[in-house]
What does this fold into?
Amino acid sequence: MPSPPLAKLRILLGVSGGIAAYKAAELVRRLRDAGAVVRVVLTANAARFVTPLTFQALSGQPVRSGLWDESAEAALGHIELARWAQRILVAPASANTLARLAHGMADDLLATVCLASTAPLAIAPAMNLRMWAHAATQANVETLRSRGVAILGPADGPMAEPESGPGRLLEPERIVAALAALHGPKPLAGRRVLVSAGPTCEDIDPVRFIGNRSSGRMGFAIARAAVEQGATVHLVAGPVHLPTPAGVAREDVRSARAMRDAVMRQIPQCDIFIAAAAVGDYRPTEIAAHKLKKSGKALVLELTENPDIVAQVAALKKRPFVAGFAAETQNVEKHARTKLVRKGLDLIAANRVGNGVGFDADDNELTLIWPGGEEHLPRADKLQLAHALLARIGALRAKSAKRRR
Ligand code: PMT
It folds into this structure.
């Protein structure tokens, strides 16, 4: 029997105030099922939502909440607790807790332990959607991310208020899966991965452009998963509104040709190229110097074909492993197979797009196709899919290395 993903890992779970605190009880159970040893620290507000006794019963360990609890400090003081933890997970993290952690406060037990510990920190935020969207919260999240803190979620969906939007605590099983990925083996250690992500924009005039619906989430998830698996990652991104995943070197571009140039500069240094970008196939032959004016007649735009970046990489004599994507609205696998061969790829990830699927969503569903095989990855969030895609790429590379020996 393989050992569970978090076997014997000592996790300190910090629970902060909010209605989602009840889900932390389920999270303790799932963490223990995954093999972890869990100790819980509650903030004062969390203890108003769920009692320490609940967490004590579920974790099988004493629960701490106050910094000034003399008997507890005598047994396992906050510094020992900080040393004991091999991972710290704060779930749910309220807007207030997130802000306190971003600013290095030490005004309660949880914040003090986080500050005193060198254990990797993961945070699963949960709050009202407007609190999550607030510039102050987003700046705090960015600060934490830039320090290497893993931000898990939040999920998008119905809230207690009742309202719907981003701010829900990620489901406990997803939090455990994300922790397992962070903690898990590093099969890409020493490998250099290049990822393209997002749309390209082809200017028509100084104010208009031809673009597409790609948000960049799939490519950014791949970049993040590759870092989590130990790779050195370079991300070439079209115009998107996404924060850079921790540990990723990012280069922003606008047009297909700029993306091609950025990719080609990186190719000699990379082992794996994953083309998740939705590259515009055409650009206006000429970019008007001034804003085009209405003339009362139809406007005819002449378009010139853009370079096919992934095909150019695959055609190189000395080339990395090349994986492309196929975004299709019908006959998805058939078109993907044609692209796999036509572009000379090692693998293609086929996805259906349109009507709210594939593009600009947290979830996706992929069929991986390679010469001689295929694997269907059912609907899941893009980070999980990214990990599965990288696992398949790793297996294919290992197989071809064996053949060469
Ligand atoms: O960004 P999200 O909102 O998360 O959405 C994710 C996604 C749907 C954009 C992503 O999963 C995806 O499918 N990306 C590829 C989109 C695309 O352009 O597919 P395509 O079938 O048109 O192109 C096939 C492949 O050739 C792709 O790897 C593409 O990057 C590459 N290509 C295409 C044209 C071109 N000129 N150069 C290229 O390199």
